[in-house]
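Escalation from tier 1.

The customer reports that the assembly of two entities below gives different structure tokens on two consecutive runs. Tier 1 could not reproduce it. I'm attaching the input and our single run for tier 2 to review.
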Amino acid sequence: MPTGHDAQVRALPVSPSTGALRPLDLHEVRVTGGFWSDFQQLNATVMIRHAEDWMERVGWIGNFDAAVEGRLPADRQGREFADSDVYKLMEAMAWEIGRTGDAELEARFQALVDRIEPVQEEDGYLNTHFGRPGQQPRYSDMEWGHELYCFGHLIQAGVARGRTHGRDRFVEIAIRAADHVCETFGPDGLDTICGHPEIEPALAELARYTGERKYLDQARLFVERRGHGRLGEIWFGPEYFQEDVPVREAEVLRGHAVRALYLAAGAIDVAVETGDEELIGAVTRQMSRTVARRTYLTGGMGAHHEGEAFGDDFELPSDRAYSETCAGVGAAMVGERLLLATGDPVHADLVERVLLNVVATSPSEDGHGFFYTNTLHQREPGTTAATDEVAARAASSLRAPWFAVSCCPTNVARTVASFGTYVATADDDGVQLQQLATAEVRTTLPDGCPVALDVETDYPHDGRVRVTVREDATRPWTLRVRVPGWATAGAVLRVDGEETTVLPGYAEVRRAFRAGDVVELDLPVRARWTWADPRVDAVRGQVAVERGPLVMALESTDLGEDVNLAAVDVEAAPVERDGQVLVRVRTAAPTERDWPFPAEPAHPDTVADAGLVPLVPYHRWGNRGPSTMRVWIPQA
Amino acid sequence: MPTGHDAQVRALPVSPSTGALRPLDLHEVRVTGGFWSDFQQLNATVMIRHAEDWMERVGWIGNFDAAVEGRLPADRQGREFADSDVYKLMEAMAWEIGRTGDAELEARFQALVDRIEPVQEEDGYLNTHFGRPGQQPRYSDMEWGHELYCFGHLIQAGVARGRTHGRDRFVEIAIRAADHVCETFGPDGLDTICGHPEIEPALAELARYTGERKYLDQARLFVERRGHGRLGEIWFGPEYFQEDVPVREAEVLRGHAVRALYLAAGAIDVAVETGDEELIGAVTRQMSRTVARRTYLTGGMGAHHEGEAFGDDFELPSDRAYSETCAGVGAAMVGERLLLATGDPVHADLVERVLLNVVATSPSEDGHGFFYTNTLHQREPGTTAATDEVAARAASSLRAPWFAVSCCPTNVARTVASFGTYVATADDDGVQLQQLATAEVRTTLPDGCPVALDVETDYPHDGRVRVTVREDATRPWTLRVRVPGWATAGAVLRVDGEETTVLPGYAEVRRAFRAGDVVELDLPVRARWTWADPRVDAVRGQVAVERGPLVMALESTDLGEDVNLAAVDVEAAPVERDGQVLVRVRTAAPTERDWPFPAEPAHPDTVADAGLVPLVPYHRWGNRGPSTMRVWIPQA
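Tier 1 run:
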């Protein structure tokens, strides 16, 4: 396989050996302040521990002890895929240890390795739910068993560990598992796939990490096998696990959103490493149509609660938005991979949108509760979840401390811990700032030219991004700062007192930079109205407010009454005052009818001017107790 | 129990012993022509046979043979509730035999009895899925086992048979099963309930049929036990099977729509027979709020695919309408019961709406395919189902010959076969025509005054209802003809050449009728626009067309292109021409965007006048091949 980039040792979740851009790793980018630093701090001090504590409490970590002590299946806790959440926690820990060197966290990580290691069988198989007397046989339920899905998360955690620490016991566990998968499912082995994609990007990344081609070949085999009907019939139909159409023939993402996105990520990895232009083209087109027609304003994906699935084109109901947090993580994974492969910053726009409006929405402000789904319209006030109970369902009305299926909290944790790897990319010509965050960027261009940048910004709340060069260049290079797609007018680049208007894409400065050079980008983060394509029937006659990259929401907490009959006056622009975004709201008294479909247009009898009402960033809604909320608001 | 009405022998699915109105039975009302006669003919000649053939083919009837031959559980086919569909088929057969005396059908009915009878165990238990070696024990899975649900349908079929034929072998099977249920779940027995209500209305009806109080007491016990958390936790939450709130404390129907409606039906039966005003008041209020806030224009109920459930108030997305056919049957059951209990014709309006726009929508024109769900907006052309394959899913995009869960076809069959019992009611003062159909009505008022009416009408297509009296009255009595709620203006009653304007409710004529008297009602069935409460976000800015009781739909088959970007001009009223309803449609060329949420209102670039386009009655859509369809159409 090609080795243009040094994929092995770089502290990255995704480290392609080739492609338009090379991502800067955790050692090259340190997030030092602002929004993302605060989020990483919450993750480090609360969320990771919270997930670990809950998985001890509900026995998912204990499943490994039960395996060692011969107490399975009697004592098995959780769903068939419970092992995977332990691995995702460990991946989060690995990134966090890599980021900060936290010794106490390192000890906890090792304690988990101690409990997992003895469960791995002689041939590399490792799963607490299958294969023992009284359990189903290995690989007897490819549709729902999630065994390869669990291995995928184990391998991703192993790669994270290897790249941040070096090859150790845990990395060996992951490699033994991957070897087992290759032996079992190779060209001469079981000719099938897992109902939940995830092994594909994991094996591709392990190939990058180890330099061993066989993992890539296996990932490719899994990608190519899918879509030919190898899995059995299920209630949700074959598109649920993308078994309806081969990956390279599909036109759009469909079925279970997280499955579709993980598969797309793996397909891109395989395509990049094998130079398969057809495949990367196919996935790019699928993703483009998905973004253009099957994505919520928040970047959320998945319009159906049933099957946690994509709906048809433009079927994007606000009140039934499933928009699973994990699909946000999956969209960021796919967006980042397409950015690296193509260099097109539109993919970084998607990453920004989902990180700030889906992934960041999931945790509560205190880090002890999570949204699983992310509705855009809460019709009835939710109930605050008990802080000491597992929520049975993926409810959209409340953040809950833990779920019976609890994929989201650990997915958020691993994403936030590795956020630094989304910040900047490089190519031979220079460095690109992709996600705008206060950070120290230190790297070296391929010819040895050093790059040292300090980025300061209050983004996403403020539009000023100030980049200070800290080291003299040995030759001219190009600094690019992404201008997000929403900044269609008013973005200004300032260099040496000279201002240039810049458009979405990259703002560029090319020169032999000297220490002390300052480049400033001013993005117009003023609140603005956003409309919808008329085919999005669900929000016809409605308007949303965005401010910079943040989607805003009207919450009953601020309105002082239920939002269901609120409307906004769009004659004037939204007002910004004292750090708040306000819109003029009119509220109507409901006309109560025995039948809701009258023979005349239903103009409300009474409309009251509720005055200027503050909106909240969508990712912060629901933090002040039960409320009703809407992102899309009818026009008055 | 009270015996004001003669409940035992009357050929009725629901025959209350008391209440405002007494329903006329199959022997008192003969449907002789028009829409419903055609539908009954299709049912008799195709649908019943179709269901029987499919249940032979997929082995659901064969399960009874397998039980006799000791081949269970190995040879068991279908879901845990497969027995129930055989019983629903037999109920349909019983009504059909009662209606027509079809000897060949009688022989097929007896053949089924021959196969079922030996499966019943000594103590009355009868189920092909539980209790044998290798099967789960009886009543070990009250959440999902459906054992009492199956008994409920067996008992309803038994009552249908008893009332149309007399007490025979099959009726005895049903009674033995009911006795077993009373013994097992009585006050001193298992203190639990079934995850799927149905036993409640069945036992109440058996009490009415046999005159035995114990069945009513048991039904009441089941109603009162529900809502206290006796069933275990499930993914969908306790509201799924109405275990969240006791029946008499609930404010609205919620959870699984069919479960909620069957339970409401049983609660009304219990309340009526026990004189429980509080309970009947509670269910009436729940149903009123459900109709006012949780019901589609079609009368369809259930906004969520997930859990086949009611959504929140006003959450009525067209494209995700689940609106299960069986929920339509359930709504008709509840509406009819409330009509009989209260006399309020608004409940007959609901029955009319769901029969014509949900139940009648399910079967294809040839009777060999069925909708399980009834969407109000088809975004992508469905695929025509293979005529020889079981559909795995309750797809909304196609009518399929049979489903893995196939509750709907038999439910339609039993409802259509017993349609005559919805047509007319009586009280001491006279007769009420509730469902407008060509029919012969022959009954006797309590004091012996004979009533003989011939009703002629092309309703729902035409608004003229002509009632000819065929027998002299012995005293003055009141003929009431229901004026549907939609006929808010222009309904005219004509008697002896004199015209009176009548309003929704009942048009009344009181006199000592003479043979040859004619009463004519003219209903204004002209096509009209219908709007929605502004809280129904899903259809904001849209309008529907109704014609008389029929909801109309715009189908791509008529438009000649996809309906997703169609809009209607509402300046003028819909046009009626040559028996068609036409509206002026404008179609827009889609503006393709990379991101569907622009910064400016998305006015289409090109709007074309598609001219006057015919609409189809919603219940007939999808009969001309794959199409896109919408009931609610954006206003141009």
